[in-house]
């Protein structure tokens, strides 16, 4: 299907792997998060196989904040990916599936002492430092544990990607990292701290980036900055360029064509590093959304239908803003289909509203659809990233189950919350 | 403290009940949701004692979507409140503390069959219907169970409260309820459906309303509509006016003075009903936010401090957008204080950012504060509503504990999520 090559239309029916969406909904109930396992693996291989170099080690890190649950992290392990975690909870999930600690990188601003201690204890590969006071805290923790932690520093190259304010991360007043003007001094301090071994720099210019020139431009600025650092006696050989590659959500989105882009980027970096006389030991990319989003969809059951006097047509679904916060948070756009009526022409424009007790709980303002009927399965496509992971328990609605489909097979990989799960932390006495 | 009469400044220290915020943070850790139990009870009594009538039964329903957990629902029970629930999960919470079912009202759009069945089985007091197809579904379910369910219909009086788009609920294209133009016809059908007993009308004009005239205006429109309905042979004697009373979050907010407003409203409704020749058996109000918000605050620990070259000062806290989605969702404003330094003059304007891996995770853009130090306890005041209840597990950070303070005593009423809780639904095999 357009923008979603891994989902098929077979005689008007939406098919994931070799399973119809309708059968999956009947088996597991709705709302339901569904991933095509083969599509996830293909996308992992696209990154691993096309971002390669003979002159440096190319690492692909899955940014697990996009979606973190045991089965997905295990898949990332099996595909040889490295892993970004931003919390003790994400680290715990990774360790629960025996993800090799040396392939884990700890990210984020304001890592807690407890989290840094857990990271050091697990022996994870790298910590990307956000600022100098964090560097000092980690130094104390590592030194006390008698260990040396390899670190990078997050810096802001000052390149703006054209994206939503909330997910634009490298502007001058970003909460993340340090500006280039002040980073040099911080790096000098970090290089001298016990328990730390300075290895390189990280940047992340934003999310849902459609223009590859912004990405390349940021990379060159980073290389220039590495040259300047070298001149000041700072020894660094890892460049982490972050992620942020855009995906297709709805008509008009034009994602970067990954395979040629990644190959071009890998070569460009070889040349640009050589031209600047920099020895790069490793270059990292951190896809999150672009790794998992378009292998996923959410299935809902259509409930009540309401046609208002002003012409607005509402189709209510059994989930909404809690299982997909992105619309209320970012006014994100999505594509909806009726899973068993793909070949039916659109009758009207439908507003797809959830069942959360809030006016803003509308997932799509106007979707051209054949008139939905109660009981129809409605699929929202491309929900593999930042839906499960941002789930809100608002209205005490249960978190949906997650299902992996592999050809004819399917299995629950996260079970649906029960009513008892919902009140599990409430103390009743 | 200004806007928060239940929190005290004692020699520069923030005190809830007779406990310092700092001691609570030390005992239970941070982030921590804290409620003053006495303040909750006082607010419940303000509603119950000031909204009274000799000519109709005045019911106060706590809208539990504002904050639903066992201890709070038990408190609502003890204070004689009635209860709004909008899901099976909220109903389950209420039943877990033996909330009398006949004092529970089921609300919301697109209630699922499963939820309606649970409501009928529990024998709850009333269902507020959103639309006709829901009415038909409930009729079938009630009839099959051999029961008669008392119902109200939600209608839109077309009054706009000045509030955020997402929480403005009675405009003509709202997903909730039916417009007055079409409601009459629907009521005729509902009155004839087996298993249902039509009792009245519900409206809710919005949230965080500061102008009492909007509320009164909506009430009069509803009474006029009841007259019109009476003329068409529709028998209804309950009027549910919803909630939406604004609270103080930050300087400039001027909430309605509840006690006189409620007394005036109660009298006004007596007179207006009498003038129209309507016999009102019951009038309901549904405070949610205004019942609990300002009895609550959230405690955080200040972590890293970052001063950017452009003059932006960041103080990072150990929570953020996950435990308070309202800022990212509605650009909501809040008041922050350093819990042990209330008497210190502000040194600078501080941006209070959380530890979620997202640029938008900023709880306050510019708070005038004495320069925060790592380890300081920072309190955000007035977080009793729509914070715990909207909690998002983003970044796999644990949901904070909830503590009730009563004078010198304090107790955990919701325990903090553990790492094992976070992965509890992940299937590891």
Automatic annotation (TrEMBL), chains A, B:
Orn/DAP/Arg decarboxylase 2 C-terminal domain boundaries: 32-384
Domain annotation Orn/DAP/Arg decarboxylase 2 N-terminal: ranges: 40-292
Binding site for substrate: 289, 326, 330, 358, 386
UniProt superkingdom: Bacteria
Listed GO MF terms: diaminopimelate decarboxylase activity
Source species: Peptococcus simiae
Sites where the protein binds pyridoxal 5'-phosphate: 244, 286-289, 386
Protein's recorded name: Diaminopimelate decarboxylase
Gene3D superfamilies: Alanine racemase, Lyase, Ornithine Decarboxylase, Chain A, domain 1
EC number in record: 4.1.1.20
Listed HAMAP family: LysA
Sequence positions bearing N6-(pyridoxal phosphate)lysine: 65
Lineage, highest ranks first: Bacteria, Bacillati, Bacillota, Clostridia, Eubacteriales
Cofactors required: pyridoxal 5'-phosphate
General function of this protein: Specifically catalyzes the decarboxylation of meso-diaminopimelate (meso-DAP) to L-lysine.
Biochemical pathway: Amino-acid biosynthesis; L-lysine biosynthesis via DAP pathway; L-lysine from DL-2,6-diaminopimelate: step 1/1
